[in-house]
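Exam revision sheet. Question 4 asks you to relate a sequence to its structure. Input first:
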Amino acid sequence: MASFYVENFGCRATQADGAAIEGQFRDRGLERATAPSQAQIVVVNTCTVTASADQDARATIRRIHRENPGCQILVTGCYAQRAPEELASLPGVRWVVGNSHKHKIAEVAASRTWKSGPLGPRTNSEMRRALAPEIHKQSFSAATSAAGATNFVPLTSLTPEAQSQVFVSDIFAHTELMAAPVFDAANERTRPNLKVQDGCDNRCSFCVIPYVRGQSRSLRLEEVIREVETLVASGFREVVISGINLGRWGRDFDPSLRFEDLVWTILEKTSLQKLRISSVEPMDWSDDLIQLIAGSRRIAKHAHLPMQSGSDRVLRRMHRKYRPWHYCEKIEKIRTAMPGAAIGADVMVGFPSETDSEFEETRRLIEELPFTYLHVFTYSARPGTPAATMPNQVPVRVARERNRILRELAAEKKLEFQRSFVGKIVDAITLNVFDGEHTEALTDNYLKLRLAGKYDPNHWVTARVEHVSGGALLGYLEAST
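Answer key, C-alpha cells:
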C-alpha cells in the first residue's frame, strides 16, 4: 500500500487544510506514514506570511529529499500559490499545487488511473486532460495584484518542458473551502480546531494572504453544525473555531449572516461543552458578540484582536480599518464584560518608515491596555505588496530591538495576569501531556496549568492555583467532570 506524509507550516487554517489533505489520501486507500523518511509521497503544506516562513519551507524540502530521495514531494499552500516556479526548481519536487487546486491534491499525486500504478509517472498531456478545464495559464495582473503591484511572481500552469508539474490558477476564482478538524500532535485527544472560514477581502498593505487564499468564503452553517456534532459525538469537550478572517464568516451568503449567528447557533444546536473562538479582527467585535461570549459559560473567556500598531499614522500606512481609539474602546468593552478573560493581540514592529516616536506610541498603548499575552512579529517584506516598495525600510537591527522590547513587556503583563489567579479556583481542560509529576491543562481563559498528579486527557477540571512557576500556573485538582 502506498504511503503519504503531510508536513504543515503556519497558521491554524493551514493546519486545517493539511488535515483535509490527509483525508483525501485516506479516501483513496493510502496509508499515513509516521515520518517523511518513511513515506512514498510527502506533501509540504507551506506558509508565506514572512520571508522566514519561505526559508523554512525550502529547508524542509531539501532535508526531505536528502533523507528520502526516493519519495515524491508535492508542495502546496500559500507559498506554492505565490511562487510556484521558485518551488518547482528545488530538487526532489515532483508537483507544485497552489491553493487554487488544493482540493485536487490526491487526484494529482495518487490517482489510481496512472499507467504505471498509483505512484507511476503521468505525462503533462494526460494530467491536463484529467483536470481540464480547471487548470489554465493565468497571469497575475494588476487587477488582482496588491494595489496594482507588478513584481508579484506570475501564476503559471503546466509546461511540457518542466521537470516539476505546476497546478496553479487564479485564486480569486476559487470557491472551494476544505474543512477538516485538525489536532495538535501532542494533544490529539483534546481541543480539535475547525476551520469555518477562508480567504480575506481586506487589503492590508503588508499582507500577501488575500492574494494566495482568495476572497472570503464561509463554511455553510449546516456543515459547521454537522462537524461540531460529529466532534461532540466522538467525545471532544472543547472545539476551537478558526479562519483567515473569522469575523467575516457568513458575509458571503445571500442573505448574509453575522459571526454572532454562527456562535449562537453552535450553542443552540449542539451539546458542545466549550467553544473557543480564535482571532477576530477588532471591527468584528460587536457589542452583541461581546455580550454573547460574556453571558455563556460554554464559551471560553478568551479574546484575540490583532492590533498590529498603536500608532494612527502606521495603521493608516498599513491600510488597517480602525484607529487606536477604536481599538482601545473594543478592549475596554471586553475587559468590562469579562474581567478575567485572556486578551491577546498580534503586533508588528519595523513597518516601513516606523519612527522611534511611532514605535513608542505602540509601546505605550500596549503598556496601558490589559493584554495578557502578545504575538510580536518583525515586519517582513512580501513580494507584490505595497509595503514592500515603500521608502525608508526600517533597519533589521532596529526592528529586532523593538521586537525585544515588546516581548519583554508582554512577558511582564502575562506574569502579572498569571499571579492574579494565585489562591483562586480555575476551570481547565486536561491535555495529553504528563511529565512524570504533573498533567498539563489549559484554563478557560487560556493559561497553561500544571496539575500535580496524572489525569486522563479531555476532562474539564476545577483546580486551586498554588503559585506560578516556569511560565505556568501550578495547582491541585478540586473536582473533575
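Marking note for examiners. The two ends are 42 Å apart (CA to CA).
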